[in-house]
Write a structure and sequence with these properties.
The complex is a heterodimer of chains A (about 450) and B (about 625). With about 450 residues, chain A is of the alpha/beta class. Chain A is built from 17 helices and 14 strands. In chain B, helix 13 links the parallel strand 7 and strand 8. Chain B is α/β, with parallel strands linked by helices. Classes of the chains: A alpha/beta (about 450), B alpha/beta (about 625).
Chain lengths: ~450, ~625
C-alpha cells in the first residue's frame, strides 16, 4: 500500500503530465473517418498536434475552433458551428470529436447546448456524428481525457440493443487503456483471434496510428473502428477493459447494452497474462493454443535469464497512474526496488502501486529522487535528468520523440513481456557498473607510499 | 629448444604435486590428465588453457596462429579486468587459409607480427600455436626468434596446440613459455624486502582489486601477478620477488616451483576466498617476507589490517543473518573451493545440505567434513538428473554452482548463483565475501520464484518438466527390474575409474581372466592409474569376486536370494542389502538421507550412498505404490 503524496511545489518543473484534451483527441484517433476538434485557441491544438507528430511520426488529424480573444469573451458558439461545417465540407469527416480546453471551460461554454443548436440549424449535417467531451486542461491528465472520451463514445454512438438480442458468442469488445500502444493492440488482437473470437477495439489505434502507408490521402483518421461497428457493438457477448481507468467506459457499455465485462488492471507480467489467457479460454470454450504454451515457457525462461540482471536494481519511474501501476508491479515482480515513483494525478490506483510512496509530481521531483538509481523509466523528456545524473533512461509511454518505433513498443502478452525483459536486461548489461582498481578500497595508500620498509617499521 | 612433447613430459613430471609423486615412473609418463572420452568430453583444449592463463597480461598482443576457429570463435570472452591497457582484449589471429595449409603459414605469421608492431606497438607479442599449423609443421619458435631479432622486442612462442591435451595441461604449458622466454629477462628498477609474486590469480571480475589495495596498505609490493592485470615487464621481473603466493589452484604450480628452484623464491599455496583464508594468506605471505629479512613488525602491520577488515566484513555479513538463517544451500563447485565459502554461509545461519567435491583434494574433503559434520552430503560427479533429484530431495533453497549447471537449477525454478570463473561478480577477500552473501540474499528473495513456480492455469501437473524427469527415472528403473540382462549390463557399465574411464564389467572380466591383485588389475585395465581414488573400490571388487569364487555359480533361487540379500552395502557400518531393502519397504523410505537415518548405511565414508540410491530406485520400481503415495 503506497502512501500517495502530492508535490507541495507551486511551480512544476519539467512536466511529466500531458493535458486531458490530448488524451481525448488520441481516443478519437482510433475511430475511422473521424476528426478530433479542440474547442479552444489555436495553440491548444497545435501543441497537441506537434506532440503526436513527433511521437508517431505520422500526419495527425486534429482541428481547432480557433477561439479569438473576442470569441472567448462572448462565447464560442459560432466558432464551434463553423468548425463543424468546415470540417464536414472540407475533410469529409463522419465523426467530429469535440474536446473542450482550459480556455473554453473557464469561460463556461455550454457545448452540449451548442451541439443541439447546430443540429436544429443544420439539418444537412444529420449524418455527421458529433461527440462532445468536457476535458478542461486544468483538471486531470491524458489518461482521464481518454477514458471520458471512450465512455462518451459509447453513450453517444452505440445503439441500444433489444432486450432479447441474440448475442454473437465470437464477438468481443476490447476497451484498451490509453497506455496501450498500437503494438500492444496488435498483440492482443492476435491472442484473442487465436481463441477463435473477433475482437472490436474501441478505440483502435492499431488501425490508424500504427504507421502504415495509406492508399489515399485522407485528412481524417487513416483507420480505426468504424462508426457502424461501434453502433453495432451491442450484440457482443463479452467486454474486456484494460487499465483501471477504463472502468467507467466498461460500466457505461454494460449499462447500455448488458454486455458483461472483465477488467484487467495489469497485462504486463506472467500471472496477469495467465489470468488473461485463462479468461479467454473460458469465454471462448477453447483450449489454450499450443503457441501460447510455448510463449509462456519462453516468458518464464526470460524471467529466469533476466532476473540476474534486473533483480535488485533500483528504479526511478514516472508514468501515468495505470501504466505506472502495471509496469512498476512488473518490475517489482522481477526483483527491482522502486526507489522513486512519480505520477501525474491523484487517483486511487496509485495506492496499489507496490512501493512505499508515490509522489504526484513532475520530472524535477523524479530527478531529485533518482540519484543512486540504476535506471530511469519515463517518457523521452526524462533524457535531461538521465544526462545530468548519468543514469540510463528507458523510454516508454508518450511522448517518445527522439527514438523510432514508439508505436510498436509491445509489453503486453507473453511475447511483449518477454521482449520487455530482454530490453531492460540489455540496458543494464550495456550500462553495467565497471569495477576499477579503487572500487572496493577507494582511500587506500597509493602504490608509491606503501613500498618503504621505514614506513612499515615506524608503525 | 625443446619440443612440445618434451615440454609436456617435463610438465607431467611435477615433483611438487603430491599426486604425481605417488605414481610409478610408468604412470607418471602417461601424464596426470584424464583420458578424453570421444562423445563424452566437454572441457577446453590445451590452447584454450594456455590462452586463459596468459591473456590477462594486459599490454601484450595475443596473436593466435591458426584457422579462424581458434580465435574467431572465442575472443574477448573472459572476464579478466585491466587497470590500464585494453590491448589484451583485441583479437589477433593469422586466420590461415587453404594456401597456408598447403605451403605453410610461417610467412603469414611473420607478417602478422610485423603488422601488429607497426599498428599497435605492444611491448611484446605472445604467439599461440594451434593444431593445424602444428600439424603442417609451422615452426613458430623459429618465426618468433627471427621476429624478435628483427623488431627488437620480445615475441614469445606459446607451444600449446589443442590436441596435446586438455585445458589444465595448457595452463602449465603457458607457464613453461613464461619460464623459457619471459621471466628473468627484465630486472626491476629497485627491490624491496616486501616484493611478492601472486601466481594463478587472473583478476576475474576485478577480484584482484578486492585484495591488492589491502596488500599495498600493509606494505607489500606486488612485483608480479601472473597473470591478472599484469604488464609484460612485471611478469618479466618476477624472478626478483622475495616470496610467492600460489593462488588456490595447481594450474601454475610449475612456474611457482621453478621460481623456487632457479631463484630461491619460497612459496605457499593460499586462497583469497573466504574471510579466514584471506587472513591466513596475508599472514603466510608476510611470514615468508619476514623469513627472508623483512622486520618482524611487518606482521603487526598485517595483523592490524586483518583485524580491521575482518570486523568490518563480519559486521556486514551478520546484518543478513535474520534473512538467511535456516536457508538451505546446495553447493556444486570446483572453482571457488567449497570449504572457503562454507564458513561464511554457516556464519549467517545457512545450512549446507550438500556439496560437490569433484575437483577437491582429499584434504579438502576432510575439511568439508570437519565443517559440515558427518551428515553432509558430498558428491563426486553428478548427472543433471541426479542434481535435480538432489535439489528436490534436499529441499534446498538455493544452488551455488558454475555456469554449466545453472540451467538445472533454473529450469527446476530454483534460485541459483554463479560462483565459478565465468561469474560477473567478484567474491575475493573480505569485501567479496560480503558481496557473495548479498548476492545470495538477492537471488533468494527475488520475487520471480513464486511466479515461475506457479503452473499455467491450464497445465496438468503431469506435464511439467519435473514430473517428466521423475517419470523417466521411474520408467528406467522399472525397465531394468523387468529385464535382468539389461540390469546386468547397466550394473557392469558403472564407471569405477573416472580418470581412465574403466567400467565395472571390464574390471570383473580382468579378474575372471586372472588378475588377482590390485596391482594386476591396474596393470591390465589401467583403472586406478589416474588419481588413484578408486583403488579402494577395486579392492572391494576383488573381494566380491573372490567371495563368488571367481566365477558365477548357479544357485537355487532361494539360496541366490539369500546370498543377494547378504551382500554388504555399507562396509563402514556393516549393513547388508537385505536390511536396507526391508527397511525401505517397511518404513516407505524415499531418500538416501532417510535410509541412512534408519539403518546407518551410508553414515560412514558415504561411498555407498550412490548404491543406496540405486537400491531405492530398484525397490520402488518393483513396488511402485509408496512412490505414488508420496507424490
Amino acid at each position: 500500500m503506497a502512501i500517495v503524496s502530492v508535490t507541495k511545489k507551486a511551480c512544476t518543473v519539467n512536466p511529466l503530465k500531458m493535458s486531458q484534451p490530448v488524451g481525448g483527441a488520441l481516443a478519437f484517433m482510433g475511430i475511422k473517418d473521424s476528426m478530433p476538434l479542440f474547442h479552444g485557441s489555436q495553440g491548444c491544438t497545435s501543441f497537441g498536434l506537434v506532440l503526436f507528430v513527433r511521437h508517431f511520426k505520422e500526419a495527425i488529424p486534429l482541428q481547432t475552433t480557433a477561439m479569438s480573444e473576442v470569441a472567448t469573451v462572448l462565447g464560442g458558439y459560432e466558432n464551434v458551428e463553423q468548425a463543424i461545417v468546415n470540417i464536414t465540407n472540407k475533410q469529409k469527416a463522419r465523426l467530429i470529436g469535440i474536446c473542450s480546453t482550459g480556455v473554453t471551460e473557464t469561460k463556461g461554454d455550454d457545448v452540449d447546448a451548442y451541439i443541439k443548436l447546430v443540429r436544429t440549424q443544420h439539418p444537412e449535417l444529420a449524418d455527421i456524428a458529433l461527440v462532445y467531451v468536457s476535458t478542461p486542461d486544468f483538471k486531470d491528465a491524458l489518461q482521464d481525457g481518454w477514458d471520458k472520451t471512450v465512455a462518451k463514445d459509447i453513450e453517444t454512438l452505440v445503439k441500444k440493443p433489444p432486450e432479447d438480442v441474440a448475442r454473437n458468442p465470437k464477438k468481443i469488445v476490447v476497451l484498451p487503456g490509453s497506455h496501450m500502444t498500437p503494438g500492444d493492440l496488435d498483440e492482443l488482437r492476435d491472442i484473442i483471434e487465436a481463441f477463435g473470437m473477433e475482437p472490436f477495439f474501441l478505440p483502435d489505434l492499431a488501425a490508424s496510428l500504427d504507421g502504415h502507408i495509406p492508399d489515399d490521402f485522407t485528412p481524417t483518421t487513416l483507420g480505426g473502428i468504424s462508426l457502424e461497428e461501434i453502433a453495432d457493438l451491442g450484440d457482443a457477448s463479452y467486454a474486456i477493459a484494460i487499465g483501471e481507468h477504463m472502468r467507467r467506459a466498461a460500466e457505461t457499455l454494460q449499462k447500455k447494452t448488458g454486455i458483461p465485462y472483465r477488467l484487467f488492471d495489469r497485462l504486463i507480467g506472467l500471472l496477469p497474462n495467465d489470468a488473461f489467457i485463462a479468461h479467454l479460454s473460458e469465454i471462448s470454450g477453447k483450449e489454450v493454443p499450443v503457441k501460447f504454451k510455448r510463449q509462456r515457457s519462453q516468458f518464464v525462461d526470460a524471467m529466469l535469464d533476466g532476473h540476474f540482471h534486473i533483480g535488485g536494481k533500483k528504479i526511478a519511474i514516472g508514468l501515468e497512474p495505470d501504466f505506472l501501476f502495471d509496469l512498476a508491479s512488473f518490475l517489482v515482480d522481477m526483483g527491482c526496488h522502486i526507489q522513486a515513483a512519480v505520477s501525474t494525478n491523484n487517483v486511487p490506483i496509485l495506492e496499489r502501486v507496490p512501493v512505499e510512496s508515490v509522489l504526484v509530481g513532475d520530472l524535477e521531483d523524479l530527478e531529485n529522487m533518482a540519484p543512486g538509481c540504476d535506471l530511469i523509466i519515463t517518457h523521452a523528456h526524462g533524457r535531461q535528468a538521465s544526462e545530468r545524473l548519468h543514469i540510463p533512461l528507458f523510454r516508454i509511454g508518450l511522448p517518445i520523440f527522439d527514438r523510432l518505433g514508439a508505436a510498436h513498443i509491445t509489453s503486453v502478452g507473453y511475447r511483449g513481456g518477454r521482449d520487455l525483459i530482454f530490453d531492460l536486461a540489455n540496458m543494464f548489461i550495456a550500462n553495467a557498473h565497471v569495477v576499477k582498481p579503487d572500487t572496493w578500497y577507494p582511500h587506500v595508500a597509493a602504490p608509491g607510499e606503501a613500498e618503504h620498509a621505514t614506513a612499515a617499521a615506524s608503525h | 629448444m625443446s619440443s612440445v612433447s618434451a615440454t609436456v613430459q617435463d610438465v607431467f613430471n611435477e615433483p611438487a604435486c603430491p599426486k604425481n609423486a605417488a605414481k610409478s615412473e610408468k604412470e607418471r609418463k602417461k601424464g596426470c590428465t584424464k583420458q578424453l572420452q570421444p562423445g563424452g568430453a566437454a572441457g577446453g583444449c590445451a590452447f584454450d588453457g594456455a590462452k586463459i592463463a596468459l591473456q590477462p597480461i594486459t599490454d601484450v598482443a595475443h596473436l593466435v596462429h591458426g584457422p579462424i576457429a581458434c580465435e574467431g570463435n572465442s575472443w574477448d570472452n573472459r572476464g579478466a579486468y585491466s587497470s590500464g591497457s585494453t590491448l589484451y582484449r583485441t583479437g589477433f589471429t593469422t586466420d590461415i587459409n587453404e594456401t597456408d595449409v598447403v605451403f605453410g603459414g610461417e610467412k603469414r605469421l611473420y607478417k602478422s607480427i610485423k603488422e601488429i608492431f607497426d599498428k599497435y606497438n605492444p611491448p611484446a607479442i605472445f604467439v599461440y600455436q594451434t593444431c593445424v599449423p602444428a600439424m603442417i609443421g609451422d615452426d613458430i619458435d623459429a618465426v618468433c626468434k627471427a621476429a624478435s631479432k628483427k623488431f627488437g622486442k620480445p615475441v614469445v612462442p606459446v607451444n600449446s596446440p589443442g590436441f596435446v591435451g586438455p585445458k589444465n595441461l595448457g595452463n602449465k604449458l603457458a607457464g613453461e613459455a613464461l619460464l623459457a622466454h619471459v621471466i628473468g629477462t627484465v630486472e626491476p628498477e629497485y627491490s624491496t624486502p616486501y616484493d611478492v609474486n601472486i601466481i594463478g590469480e587472473y583478476n576475474l571480475a576485478g577480484e584482484m582489486w578486492q585484495v591488492e589495495p589491502l596488500l599495498k596498505e600493509i606494505g607489500f609490493r606486488i612485483l608480479s601477478c601472473i597473470s591478472g592485470d599484469a604488464k609484460y615487464v612485471d611478469v618479466a621481473s618476477a624472478h626478483r620477488a622475495r616470496a610467492t603466493m600460489m593462488v588456490c589452484s595447481k594450474a601454475m604450480i610449475n612456474i611457482t616451483r621453478k621460481l623456487e628452484e632457479k631463484f630461491g623464491i619460497p612459496y605457499f599455496e593460499g586462497s583469497f576466498y573466504g574471510i579466514g583464508d584471506m587472513s591466513d594468506s596475508i599472514r603466510q605471505l608476510a611470514q615468508l617476507c619476514i623469513d627472508r629479512g623483512a622486520p618482524q613488525e611487518f606482521m603487526d602491520r598485517a595483523e592490524a589490517v586483518i583485524a580491521r577488515e575482518e570486523k568490518l566484513a563480519w559486521d556486514e555479513i551478520m546484518s543478513y543473518l535474520p534473512r538467511l538463517k535456516g536457508k538451505k544451500v546446495l553447493l556444486i563447485t570446483g572453482g571457488v573451493k567449497s570449504w572457503s565459502v562454507v564458513a561464511a554461509l554457516q556464519e549467517v545461519g545457512m545450512e549446507i545440505v550438500g556439496t560437490s567435491v569433484k575437483k577437491s583434494t582429499k584434504e579438502d574433503k576432510e575439511r568439508i567434513k570437519e565443517l559440515m559434520g558427518e551428515d553432509a552430503h558430498a558428491f563426486d560427479d553428478m548427472s543433471p538428473r541426479e542434481m535435480y533429484k538432489m535439489l528436490k530431495e534436499a529441499r534446498a533453497d538455493i544452488m551455488l554452482s558454475g555456469g554449466r549447471s545453472q540451467f538445472i537449477a533454473l529450469k527446476a525454478n530454483m534460485p541459483w548463483l554463479d560462483i565459478n570463473q565465468e561469474r560477473h561478480h567478484a567474491y575475493s577477500g573480505y569485501k567479496g565475501m560480503v558481496d557473495l552473501v548479498r548476492e545470495i540474499d538477492k537471488a533468494l528473495y527475488n520475487p520471480i520464484w513464486e511466479q515461475v513456480r506457479t503452473p499455467a492455469p491450464w497445465a496438468k501437473a503431469s506435464d511439467s518438466w519435473q514430473a517428466k524427469a521423475d517419470a523417466e527415472a521411474a520408467r528406467e528403473a522399472a525397465e531394468l527390474a523387468a529385464d535382468p540382462a539389461k540390469a546386468e549390463a547397466k550394473r557392469r557399465s558403472k564407471k569405477i575409474c573416472k580418470c581412465k574411464t574403466v567400467d565395472l564389467g571390464t574390471i570383473e572380466d580382468a579378474i575372471l581372466a586372472g588378475a588377482l591383485t590390485q596391482a594386476q588389475v591396474i596393470e591390465t585395465t589401467h583403472a586406478g592409474s589416474g588419481c588413484t581414488g578408486c583403488r579402494g573400490t577395486i579392492d572391494g571388487i576383488l573381494e566380491d569376486m573372490a567371495a563368488r569364487g571367481g566365477e558365477v555359480i548357479e544357485l537355487d533361487p532361494l539360496q541366490a536370494e539369500e546370498k543377494r540379500r547378504a551382500k554388504k552395502i555399507c562396509n563402514c557400518k556393516e549393513v547388508s542389502l537385505g536390511t536396507i531393502e526391508d527397511t525401505i519397504r517397511a518404513k516407505g523410505l524415499m531418500t538416501v538421507v532417510e535410509v541412512t537415518a534408519e539403518t546407518e548405511a551410508g553414515g560412514g565414508c558415504e561411498s555407498c550412498c550412490e548404491t543406496i540410491d540405486e537400491i531405492l530406485a530398484d525397490v520402488h520400481a518393483k513396488d511402485p505404490v509408496p512412490a505414488m503415495a508420496a507424490e
